[in-house]
Amino acid sequence: MKGFLKSVGLLTIMLVCSAFLLAGCGDDAPKTIKIGFNLPLTGDIPEVGEGSKNAAEMYLKDINDAGGLEVGGKKYPLEFIYMDNESKAESATNVALKLIEQDNVIAIIGPNSSKQAVPAGGTCNDNHTPMISPWSTNPNTTLDRPWVFRAAFLDPFQGPVVADFAAKKFGAKTAAVIFDVSNDYSKGLAEIFKSSWEAKGLGPVVAFESHGTKDQDFSAQLTTVIAANPDFIFVPDNYNQVALIIQQARDLGYTGPFMGSDAWGTPDLIKLCGDQCYNNYFSTHYAAAGAKGATKVFIDRYEAAYGSTPADYAALTWDSIGIMIEAIKNAGKVEADPVAMREAVREGLSAIKSFDGITGSSKFDAQGDPIKCAVVVKINDKGEFVFEESVCP
Amino acid sequence: MDFLIQNILNALQWGSFYALIALGYTLVYGVLRLINFAHGDIFMVGAYIAFGISGVLLGPSIGLSPLWTFVVAVPLTMALTACVGVTLERIAYRPLRRKGAHRLYVVITALMCGFILEYSNLAVLGAERLKFPELIQKSIWHMGDVTITNLKVIVIVAAIAVFVLLNFIVTKTKIGMAMRGISYDKFAIPLMGIPIDFIIVFTFVLGSAFAGLAGLLYAMSYPILEPFMGMLIGWKAFIAAVVGGIGDIKGAFVGGFLLGFIEVGVVAMPGLESTYRDLFAFSILLIILWVKPTGLFGMPQSTKI
């Protein structure tokens, strides 16, 4: 009896093992094209992850309803895998690794914010997986990383745009900056702004104050800023912090203008900040109000599907997918082996010299960075983001 | 000079929140010798309860004015948050106490309770941040270059009032005497005919109700709510309570304001980056503990609460 039980046990173990072995087999032809998404669905900026996911779902539906993506005369359905990086740098690298090693994606879109995109870009580059960050503007994301690309303009371009605009619009001679020191995006942009402001000889940056990501009280920093009496305050921060900073600055008696960066551009800013954010300006990638052509079509469809205006990260995610799709088409065929396919997609990406997207057309330079225009947007009396002017390199 | 006064006012407001939360830590520790690590999250729950209440009261079905909403929301928030604190005591701490579990396990349980509150909030309400409605028409008073808002005054006055009230309850009332008795010897006290469970529940009611008040005032001052808002401020308030001498009400009050003043002071100091805020703040607190390991007002094996 004991021997019988033993042999049954052994048989079971063998069956289970062989099931695992068999799972590795199957036919060689890939059934779907897997693209991973590294998104902040929870954490500090959940709205950004949500917007990107919405845009991606729209794109996915378009392609798959048409029977899939045609590569080399054959149609393959797309599969998008969304993973949450919790708006944290360390989670973003974990998500990238998981997508590469466990899900065997051929390419990754995201992370959005530079805080996550800079470390995740390193992971993707080391693992030879193509990555496009839709929204990251920090130069380090793509610097010396042949596998990493982006759809947004860079901070060395955005910083001077803000400086020029503020000098012209407010007639500003002095500027103050308050930024998040533990966020690559915020810190990088603050420093670039400071050097470009001073390089233009416009006047001094009278206060350069930092804060931490989890801070909610900025009154001490703002007291220093206001005591220096600047003509305007530049706040390259995420929207949740912007809402608190502006309110506390007004409580401390500051009445002058604020200037923001592309991280302001979400409908949640107005929800959290209310009318205290009205009549300020920020630089960004596109303006939804008054859009034309393909951009308008995208905005209308997004509004119909999700009931809100798509912010810049949604539009940039759409463009990133577009760039990726073009790269896959350039690859010419779909390989079963993800490693070979990644190589082909990277070749396809670097073959793209220019791209006409809904956030404007862009040319790619040697680093994989697009050269494209920025727009300055005004938050009007109703809390809408209205086009103010466009600045091209 | 104006710069200095302005920063003192900033520090008073910021310290008020630390003091209010630290008072809750110190009360529970004083009676039970339990570090209630879930206290910061009870504060967070208080802010969310206040958000829910004001949403309902301001909503179309009741339609109170913002000021009346504030008047009703304060006691209601305190009562409901007290219920949360008492529930935690009933389902988490009391069974362990009955079984005579070591204090360490109760502290770990408290940590878990904190996580449960945070993540159940995240699961129910999602990661999206909430905007707290403006309940009090904000007026900004200017005195030279110094500005102060009516909200700031309310926060500071509330912190002082809570301290005075708690000090009175603990030192002048019978129930306060019972609390100090349990702190002194929780095995002998039931023999005197004192209902120990009732006193402990009362302690949790007091601590949690004032955490709820702190949550409400905090949400009004920094009107953006998220599930993890109680974590960091809870830890820091705990440290403030330890530096003040945990178990001592005066210590929690002074410790809270001390931390507020050091944090704001480091940022306001010219030539010192605000990046160094926490580094300097906690180094200073560490030095205080080196000199006096029991905290500013603490005594070895203190019997006070």
From TrEMBL, chain A:
<protein>
    <submittedName>
        <fullName>Branched-chain amino acid ABC transporter substrate-binding protein</fullName>
    </submittedName>
</protein>
<dbReference type="Pfam" id="PF13458">
    <property type="entry name" value="Peripla_BP_6"/>
</dbReference>
<dbReference type="InterPro" id="IPR051010">
    <property type="entry name" value="BCAA_transport"/>
</dbReference>
<dbReference type="InterPro" id="IPR028082">
    <property type="entry name" value="Peripla_BP_I"/>
</dbReference>
<feature type="signal peptide">
    <location>
        <begin position="1"/>
        <end position="23"/>
    </location>
</feature>
<keyword id="KW-0732">Signal</keyword>
<dbReference type="InterPro" id="IPR028081">
    <property type="entry name" value="Leu-bd"/>
</dbReference>
<comment type="similarity">
    <text>Belongs to the leucine-binding protein family.</text>
</comment>
<feature type="domain" description="Leucine-binding protein">
    <location>
        <begin position="32"/>
        <end position="383"/>
    </location>
</feature>
Automatic annotation (TrEMBL), chain B:
<feature type="transmembrane region" description="Helical">
    <location>
        <begin position="42"/>
        <end position="62"/>
    </location>
</feature>
<keyword id="KW-0472">Membrane</keyword>
<keyword id="KW-1133">Transmembrane helix</keyword>
<comment type="similarity">
    <text>Belongs to the binding-protein-dependent transport system permease family. LivHM subfamily.</text>
</comment>
<keyword id="KW-0029">Amino-acid transport</keyword>
<feature type="transmembrane region" description="Helical">
    <location>
        <begin position="12"/>
        <end position="35"/>
    </location>
</feature>
<dbReference type="InterPro" id="IPR001851">
    <property type="entry name" value="ABC_transp_permease"/>
</dbReference>
<dbReference type="Pfam" id="PF02653">
    <property type="entry name" value="BPD_transp_2"/>
</dbReference>
<feature type="transmembrane region" description="Helical">
    <location>
        <begin position="253"/>
        <end position="273"/>
    </location>
</feature>
<protein>
    <submittedName>
        <fullName>Branched-chain amino acid ABC transporter permease</fullName>
    </submittedName>
</protein>
<feature type="transmembrane region" description="Helical">
    <location>
        <begin position="147"/>
        <end position="170"/>
    </location>
</feature>
<feature type="transmembrane region" description="Helical">
    <location>
        <begin position="104"/>
        <end position="127"/>
    </location>
</feature>
<keyword id="KW-0997">Cell inner membrane</keyword>
<feature type="transmembrane region" description="Helical">
    <location>
        <begin position="279"/>
        <end position="299"/>
    </location>
</feature>
<feature type="transmembrane region" description="Helical">
    <location>
        <begin position="224"/>
        <end position="246"/>
    </location>
</feature>
<keyword id="KW-0813">Transport</keyword>
<dbReference type="InterPro" id="IPR052157">
    <property type="entry name" value="BCAA_transport_permease"/>
</dbReference>
<keyword id="KW-0812">Transmembrane</keyword>
<feature type="transmembrane region" description="Helical">
    <location>
        <begin position="191"/>
        <end position="218"/>
    </location>
</feature>
<keyword id="KW-1003">Cell membrane</keyword>
<feature type="transmembrane region" description="Helical">
    <location>
        <begin position="68"/>
        <end position="92"/>
    </location>
</feature>
